[in-house]
Amino acid sequence: MLRYVKIVTVIFIVLCFCSAGVGDITVEPPGGLQVSNTSGYALYPVVSLDNSAREWGIIWLDNLYGLWQLMYGRLGLDSHDSLIVLNTMISLSTNVCSYTEPAISRGAGFLALWNYYMGSGYVYSLPIANDGGHSGSGQLLDSTGSFSSRPALTKVGSSFGSAWVRENALYYKGDIIFARLTSSGSISGSKRNITENETGSSGYPTLAWTGSKFGLCWVNNKSGYYRLYFQRLNSDGSPDSGIVEVTTTNENISYPQIIWDGSCFALCWTANSNIYFCRLDTDGNVVLGPITIASSGNAHYPRMAWTGAVFGIFWQEGNQGSASIYYASINNSGDMVISPSPIISPSLASAERPDVVWSQRYYLVVWHQGSSAETEIFAAKVIDTDSVPEINDAEVVSTDFPAKLILDESYTAEVRLKNSGTTVWSEPDGYCLGAVGDSDPFTSATRIPLPSGTGVKPGEEVTFRIELKAPLTPNTFTTAWRMLKGTDEWFGEIAQADIEVALPKKWYFAGGYSGTVNSIDYDEEIAILNPSDENAVVEIKSIADDGSVQKSSFTVNAHSRKTFDLSTLVSNKKIATRIKLLEGPPIYAGRLLRWSDNGIQHIAGSLSMGLPIRARRWYFPTGNTLTNAAENIRLYNPMDTTAEVTLYFYPSTGSQSSQNFSIAPHTFIEVPVKDYVSDSQVASIADSTNGVNFIAEREQIYDAGSWDNAVAMSSPGVFYPATEWYFAEGATVGFDETITVFNPNSESVSFELKIFTTFGSPSSYNYVVSANKSLQIDLGSLVVSPAVSASIRSTNGKPLVAEREMFWSVGGLANAGAHSSIGSSYRAKCWYLPVAGQTTADDFIALLNPNNEDANVNITFFAEDGSSQVYQFSIPAERRRTIYVDSLPGCKAKNLSAVVESTNNIPVVVEQSTYWSSGGYFWIGGACYAGYPVD
After folding, report:
1. Is the distance from CB of 381 to CB of 28 less than 8 angstroms?
2. Is the pLDDT of residue 604 over 90?
3. How far does CA 27 lie from the centroid of its chain?
4. Are the beta carbons of 18 and 324 closer than 8 angstroms?
5. Cα–chain-centroid distance for residue 13?
6. Virtual CA dihedral for 675, 676, 679, 680, nearest 10 degrees?
């Protein structure tokens, strides 16, 4: 029958070389690396690749101890990618016969199959750990019949498919047996006799897995010659097609091998001592070949591997005792890429019976070699540049992303990747780390170059560092990064993390007054919203202009608002204020500041949200130093180090200028802008020159007719320019509304202004604002409506800063009432309004839906007594809506906070405005601010 029964007896003197004329083929190390160390015969090595692609398991037959047994060795690469022996000569079993080759495949460790002969033949399996560890001497798979041999094995996920020959001496018939094996080598399901109903004798099974089916090949002599046959099997081994005769020539075929190349099966075999190759479709039909690979008449034992570019075929050329290892490659179109060439030709020795696996960039080839009385196992890396497909791949080795960041907090993240492809990563070739989707919520730098511009070879690792900065709204955001070549070739594993962005525990107000200052009576109230289920403990600290500090701590109950009158803490001083959460859930802080003058209570005032961060730079898009106007910029340093701050002024007329200031720790200064810019509209930037973060606010005061200090506006600085700005509040009937757009860039910026109303479609207008200039737009000249909203969008990608001012007449006195608000650069699904209602004011919530889908929102109002009420509203697509708070049942004349939440995930924009009457004058004062967005 089809047995290899001759035991060679050889002594070896080895001298191997890479044959001249092979082209770009390299053998490392030259001549190969000796794996075994026996004083007898080491034969029939077979090899499997470890999952890491840097280690391999080898098994072979060895008579080191005078009894044939199965041996294991493990190969790997050192730090220089040189081939080394990691474990060798580990005995797995002593019940081995030398008649047929064993089989090995990668599982959790490896799985070995072999043929045991003691009067009859048996097939055994044995799982092997990477280091050669194993338990027992194997599991018996087949003992039926007189002889079972020639096992074949292929990996199927974490399990295996296997086949072997079962020979019946009585009937002189060999059958092909198939079995599924578990990861531990046990039979799963039933063994199947594939050729039970076939005439003739079958042998040499070989098996491949497509991902869903098995392709099984074998030889059979029912035609009088051993021809090649194929059958497709289901995952359980049941037939999925009929048996197909692959070859029809009158030649005896032996040692076939089948592999799957991703679209077809490929076969190589020996016939009449020549090597042949063909490709089959999934039904077993020949679609290419047969093609003659070697025609010397002295070629045997072919083994091949698919690289993704070519089929590399290795075989023994020459008879036992005087053979060399040859190599050729052929592409999937049948073109010979490398003609047959000797790669291992020992002098005075013989290299025989190769086996091969592809290891991403090279072949790992094993063989036995020797002469006369001794043979050893050898291995080598065979590198053929024509065989290597250009594969870009990357493996995530480790990441260092923060689990949580505070609003606007920075963090240097690290991503360590391994080049698991076949190409060299280099900056000139366009390799970099890219933000998935070309955007990331934590940075505008969506491309991270290779460190120091050096190349990263296959198998090497590289660490990328990414400067992250938390967004300005609390939520959980995903950062995701992947390797990229050029502009659109993404590859490899994705390094990603979900990062919680949390509110800081501190809120700041740079501007403020308590009691009587410069003959003006001020009322300043801090409103604190606690929308959570737990109580919060809060500390208020006020820093006065004389350096004195006062603190007060109190509890803000769950689901309530707390109003704190600062006059109970500080009297008759200019102050800056810090609110600190000592214990409990997040809070939100707002400030209502009103003053009395000209004998009229609360003739003017302002409303603002607290600033949750300290920043290095602050922008003020508008300001006024005309005769009847006074602009003051308050700079507050809450840090322990002096802040060196430069104020840059950008007047509408005249030249730009700057002024330097030093702000001692835990103090503030007030800068009268009129001292540096006179009679002009002016934009400003406050910048820390020594990197100490600070807080900045702007106060604008106007005289109106005979009333001094009758009009007031207050705006926090903007700590980042943005490409989009939204204003939910607005009106051009009964009000004069102006939007000022400041361009802090060194080049002009084009932008689109879009105006939304309660009814009808929005209207659009296009503008250009020059470098370092402000542009004021009178909305009344564009649209006449009692309620308008607006958006600003940069059309050339350059960021801007925008602010809105609104004036109205009081008692026939033009522009005696006013308020202003910085725009919001966010559309959000949730908004917090610490000040949403006052006991002696008319309060409104403006809702803008700039999207092309309708938005539904719930507004929950929280009172100081812990009660709350929920109201539902809808805002049509590209429309705006005003909610009169005092008209809602249970909301009139109350100090209220509010939370506005989208119930259908459509983000909106929210502002709150308040107007009060006094001294017989209707709406003598008013204030407005944008809510705090949470996505």
Report:
1. yes
2. yes
3. 39
4. no
5. 55
6. -140
* Token pair belonging to 501: 């962005």
Strands 506-509 and 461-469: unpaired
Give the per-residue pLDDT at 149.
86
Cis check: omega of the bond before 127, within 30 degrees of 0: no
Q: In sequence order, what are the beta bridge partners of 26? A: 383
Residue in the block written with tokens 């919680």: 500
pLDDT tens per residue across span 101-127: 787 877 657 888 888 766 567 888 888
336 vs 268, 292, 333, 379, 773, CA distance in Å? Answer: 14, 10, 9, 25, 69
CA distance readout (Å), 104 to 129, 396, 908: 12, 29, 62
Distance (Å, rounded) from C-alpha 930 to C-alpha 150? 79
Token pair of 157, please? 């996920």
Composition of the chain by helix, strand, coil, percent to 5: 0, 60, 35
Whether omega for the bond prior to residue 638 falls within 30 degrees of 0, making it cis, is no
What confidence tens digit (pLDDT) does each residue in 687-733 have? 999 999 999 999 999 999 989 999 989 999 998 899 999 999 999 99
What's the half-sphere exposure (Cβ side, CA atoms, 13 Å) at 594? 23
Q: How far apart are CA 105 and CA 158, in angstroms?
A: 11
Torsion of CA 253, 254, 259, 265, to 10 degrees: 10
Q: Are 790 and 780 in contact (CB under 8 A)?
A: no
The residue to which tokens 């099966």 are assigned: 265
Distance CA 197, CA 229 (A): 14
Q: Tell me which amino acid residue 815 is.
A: N
Residue 531 one-letter amino acid:
P
Three-state secondary structure along 128-166? ECCCCCCCCCCEEEECCCCEEEEEEEEEECCEEEEEEEE
Q: CB within 8 A of 785, min separation 6: which ones?
A: 731, 732, 733, 757, 758
